[in-house]
Amino acid sequence: MKKIELLAPAGNMESLKAAVRGGADAIYLGGRSFGARAFAGNFNNEEIQEAIDYCHLRNVKVYITVNTLIADEELSDFIEYVEFLYKIGGDALIVQDIGAITLIKKYFPEMEIHASTQMTNNTSDDIIFLKNLGVKRVVMSREIPYTQIKAIQEKTQIEMEAFVHGALCISYSGKCLFSAMNGGRSANRGMCAQPCRMKYEYIGLEEPTGEYLLSPKDLNTILEIDKIIESNIHSLKIEGRMKRPEYVFLVTNHYRKAIDSYIKKESLDKKDMYKDLYKVFNRDFTSGYILGDNGTEIINSNYQKPIGTKLGEVISYNKKTKKLKLKLLDDLHKGDGLSTGEFVGRVLKNNEVLTKGFKGDVIELDSLKKYIPGEIIYKTSDFLFMEDLNSRISLEKKVPIDVKVEIRLNEKPKIVIRDYNERQLEKEMDLIVEKARNKPLDEFTVTTQISKTGNSPFYIEKISVILDRDINLPIKSLNSLRREAISEFENLIINSYKRISSNTINYVGNNFSNENIPKKNIAKTKIVSKPKLSVKITKNEHLDFLENINVSRIYISDRKLYDLAIENDKFKDKIWFSMPSVITEKNHKYINDLMNSLESNMMFSSNGMITKMKEKNSIGDYHLNLYNSISHNYFHDLGIRTTASLEQIYGNEFSIPENVDKTMMEIPIYIRPQLMITEYCPFKNSEGKCKKNKCEIENVNLKNEKNELFYFKNIINCRLSISSQNPKSLDIKHFRNLVKMGYESFRIELFNESRNEFLEILSYYGFDIKED
Questions:
Q1: Distance between CA 304 and CA 283 in Å, rounded?
Q2: Short name of one Pfam family for this protein (predicted)?
């Protein structure tokens, strides 16, 4: 069978070595720029080169994350950084930005590209689009079950990668604007504020819930990893670039054993491994969407931080003596960390001072905290377990080499080293072998000395010695031959991955934002006398609002409202159907049937729709995350209009790509963005089926600790969007500047606004209320 790659995370050099020693086939890491984990330790350029060399010497690949959205003014630095990674031998780049992909393929066509999960890779159409773009591998969305992965892989014949362990996002990756719109920190730019881990309450839902209503459990698939392997997946990915080395080592090592046992068809009891994984980091575990856990059990509403393993049940707490009495549910040792934030000091049993206690014991601990009888205390760190883990992490990984040594009379001694990739080095020593005067050199001595590989990354799997009789070679010379040969062989391996760029790239004064843009796609700047207005409507009465409005396009996502609007001759030619923001393979037939039944033009938000839209009048919506001129112009060259990034318009610093055809780009000026797109719904049961006879989610609101309200909407097949009660609106100064710059199309999206509120919005921006 094909090799199954185990891909492990590294946030720093210590974690990288832990991953390699744990058995990873490949490592993914980020530099100090352009990575989606800006708050991980990350690597500077010198450290990246060290990491790549270290891994390559041990037959481990390195993939570097450049999976953020890239602004025009960053493109020059981005390409220079990619050139650096290309030259030092990075095995692949993990990328989110379409413009970035096109630039990499232009300047470094041999560089392997993996499409980040931030590109929301859900369908065979998505994957075929990326494959045609030059992508070698796609990282599937965490929401896609292994059965769909298998079906998609059979259709597309491309390498696929899926997360099998670690933190989950409640929203589809790449479709989350919650942090950017409500926290000022963009998840698409590597600075997620993790709003999903904050406290919320449901308004309109009577069922008892916890506080962390959007906080998923951590993914753990080790018990059923065989099913994922059998889905034709190429790479099993562990999340955790912000995790400690102990976590990285243990998770990697356990999945290594599980994969190897599957390949070798050996039995393996994974239950103890599953329990071990609780000891390094967990928010409780779920088998995730990938294995069909798509109900309410995927959320841990009581905890958003690691909880560890159950240690004991509180019997009593004595305020005077500050003694906590516990019945132990697990073994305990001095130095263990507790969920209370304390560490275990002495352990008291029957007034005897001990250093440990055992499951079933009733013991006392010194504690300054106050406890309630029946409360469960968790062990968040296991002293003995971590000691053992750290001793295992310290064991360096070595790779096999074959060695041939030839020592002949009156010739120079020679050594030949060959590795697993058939790389070979021949090394001769600059001296002539002489006849022995006393004790001759024997084969055992040669074998013993040459096999001493010391701190090198190699061990000798096979050694052959060709040795003339009655000859002499000093042990010192033999050792020198071995050391020099191994050192040169290390350099041979390292240099075999290095590349020379065939391009002469001019970085001075070049921001790269006009690369590959046909002149027809760059409109001359002009002052627009009458900006064009588009309106997205959600209710029947919104059609009445538009009776006396000069509107260019009307966007509708509801089929019933669409059918009503399309019958109105006045609006018929202006109607654009807005497709769901997220489409999965199971929606494929529904979407195709829908497109075939529609008469209108379309708005879409997924990469897989691009080829379908070439023959239609269409616009890509803001969830395509087009952040630079190259990305926008890619679509414009296909005749597809685009929408400006909401993160650029409503982020901390207003910016917008300028090197585009401004007549092809639309700018939302009043909008309640879909902050999240999620498969989770509080009305689902443990099997992922609705508890209600009909959908009631739109009667429920979500409230955060600032008393801000958020709305749910069922967008397709119980897939929900979450939007804020508070709309985003563009400052009039920015609006007027955009008009002066030549942008001519602007969008207003209505939710529950009254007619008067709508008219006030139009008046604020100066749009005509009566038709010409």
A1: 6
A2: Peptidase_U32
Residue-level pLDDT at 341: 86
Picking from 739, 742, 721, 723, the residue whose alpha carbon sits closest to that of residue 731 is: 739
Amino acid 527: pLDDT: 56
Specify whether the CB–CB gap between 510 and 83 falls below 8 A: no
**Are 36 and 65 a contacting pair, CB within 8 Å?**
yes
Tell whether the torsion through CA atoms of 153, 159, 163 and 164 is positive or negative. positive
The two tokens of residue 306 are 């690691």
CB 188 within 8 A of CB 625: yes
Query: Rounded to 5 degrees, what angle do the CA atoms 513, 624, 600 make?
Result: 115
Beta bridge partners of 45: none
Structure-token pair, residue 216: 């998923």
| Token reading at 374 | 């029946």
**Start-to-end CA span in the chain (Å):** 69
Phi-psi group of 162: left, alpha or beta (phi > 0 → left; psi -120 to 50 → alpha; rest → beta): beta
Q: Which of 537, 581, 594 is nearest to 715 (CA)?
A: 581
In the prediction, which pLDDT does 511 show?
74
CATH topology of domain 309-393: Elongation Factor Tu (Ef-tu); domain 3 (2.40.30)
Q: What amino acid is encoded at 577 in this protein?
A: F
Distance CA 757, CA 752 (A): 10
- Residue 771: its pLDDT value, please? 47
What distance in Å separates the CA atoms of residue 668 and residue 451, rounded to the nearest whole number? Answer: 69
**Second-level CATH architecture of 5-168+217-298:** Alpha-Beta Barrel (3.20)
Question: Do residues 668 and 750 touch, judged by C-beta distance below 8 A?
Answer: no
Separation between Cα atoms, residue 141 and residue 175, nearest integer Å: 11
Tokens of 616: 């239609």
Residue 234 is predicted with a pLDDT of 97
**What is the pLDDT, as a whole number, of residue 246?**
96
- Domain ranges in the chain are 5-168+217-298, 309-393, 400-496, 528-672+728-765
Q: Are 243 and 192 in contact (CB under 8 A)?
A: no
Q: 512: phi > 0 → left, psi -120 to 50 → alpha, else beta; which?
A: left
Residue 209: predicted pLDDT: 79
- Is the distance from CB of 552 to CB of 535 less than 8 angstroms? no
DSSP states of 550-603: --SEEEE--HHHHHHHHT-TTTGGGEEEE--S---GGGHHHHHHHHHH--SEEE
Please state, as a whole number, how many other Cβ atoms lie within 10 Å of the Cβ of residue 525.
11
| Beta strand 532-537 pairing with 399-407 | unpaired
Measured between alpha carbons, how far is residue 620 from residues 13, 95, 257, 475 in Å? 41, 20, 45, 72
Angle (nearest 5°) at CA 167 between 181 and 333: 130
Count CB-CB contacts under 10 A for residue 208. Answer: 6
Return d(Cα 448, Cα 454) in angstroms, integer: 12
Please state whether beta strands 309-318 and 376-381 pair in parallel, antiparallel, or not at all (unpaired). Answer: antiparallel
Partners of 29 in the β-ladder: 10, 64
CATH T-level topology, domain 528-672+728-765: TIM Barrel (3.20.20)
Q: Vertex 654, ends 649 and 656: CA angle to 5°?
A: 70
By the 10 Å C-beta count (0-12 exposed, 13-18 middle, 19+ buried), 112 is classed as middle
The parts of the chain modelled with pLDDT lower than 70 are 1, 35-41, 208, 508-509, 515-529, 770-772
Task: Compute the half-sphere exposure of residue 718: CA atoms within 13 Å on the CB side of its CA.
Answer: 19
At 677, list the tokens.
Answer: 């797109």
CA–CA separation, 554 vs 653, rounded Å? 29
The CA distance from 92 to 769, in Å, is 54
